Amino acid sequence: MMIDYDAWREGTPYDIAALSEISDEERDLLTEELCEKSSLDWRDVEALRALATPKALKRVGVAAQKQTDGGGIEAFFDEVAQGWTPEIEARFIEKLERVQSMTGALDRLYEIAQAHPTPAVMEQLMRNARIHSDPTVRYSMGGFLLELSGHVDTRYTFDANIRPHLLNLNSADYAEYKAAVAWLSEKVANPQRNPGA
Length: 197
Hints:
With 197 residues, the protein is an all-alpha fold. It contains eleven helices and no strands. The radius of gyration is 19 Å and the shape is elongated.
């Protein structure tokens, strides 16, 4: 579980395989240590899943309920995997609404949205592209909507015909902003492929 800066930056996980070799006492100690954290990151969630004690799994559930960062979305992914329900959809939309960039949550949220592009999910994605408080989230959501609707192969597009529209989702010039929203809305309303396909 010792992660240095390089391992953190590269997304290196904890050594989960090593958990199969620990004693019951060590399992309890690690569970306690991780459960005492006020906020879990995705590595902690993976470790708690592997520890699989009742307390560890309960703590993962708490993260899924309360956190909207990378750890919370990783934990929430377990609940999504058990089945898409109206309650799960409502919680997912709330997490989309509250997401911030640079937390490790966006890619996992996009993975869930791609698997469940319901009208309510699509509406929240568009709302985030229009009015989210974080400009990088607005740009990212716009790129993801274009990817989801088949207009680009990747949300990380640098296409010179597309990038200015995404940048203008954050324009201080109201006319430019409105034009960018209209452009994105038209693209999403006329997909090149069905969302989620």
